[in-house]
Amino acid sequence: MESMPEGCIAAILSRTTPVDAARISLVSKVFRSAADSDAVWDRFLPSDSHSIVSQSPSRAKASSKKAFYLDLSDHPVVIDDGKKSFQLKKKSGKKCFMLGAKALFIAWDNGEHDWSWTTLPESRFPEVGVLRHLCWLEIHGMINTFSLSPNTLYRAFLVFKIIDVVQKFLVVLAVRKIGGHIMNKIAYLNPDSLEREAPGRFPRVRSDDWLEIEMGEFFNSGLEDEVVQMSVVRLDGFWNTSLIIEGIEVRPKDDN
User: Are both 27 and 117 inside the same structural domain?
Assistant: First the structure.
């Protein structure tokens, strides 16, 4: 194999995966040079990744295609005037989006008595939504499947923080393609050690210290553009706590 031209080795590696390329680069200097080449990593990048990241010019000036790929997988890019973020999953190169709170429909967002907006240093977005002392919770987000990676099973997650918990409260989490079957479940937003006994019914702590809870999943064939709606609706009555919404994240199931 090492007697082959580097370009041929690169062409072969470009038809594997980022994980395979990283492993094969350890074989020899020739393989490392081929595995690090732009020809390989350009194939791993989604075709529209540069167009998406053009909204953040400083991020588009990576020294190589591999550096650009790794930067996008390690650090989300905030796009659409601070309302969404884009990221790649490191193992697969598939696309991941988060709809920030400003990109969501939030019922009763009518000012200081219900929802308010604030800045948190730990959030990727300029503003997050804060809910206090409200008897109703209703949040909806939508995403078009053409913006996602084709032939991929996706999961949607509500990303949030909860403060001053005084009681457990139930929500209905739903994911559906417009005009299609509704997939929903009942879960608690309160963190609880019972997660081990009731997986999926309580949130878990993310690596960025936010909480997340799975809302549901859907398959994107990539054959047609469909609209996926993701919803959170509270079931029980008044509550006395603070809920901070960062957004709804949509990411591939096979790389969680």
Answer: no
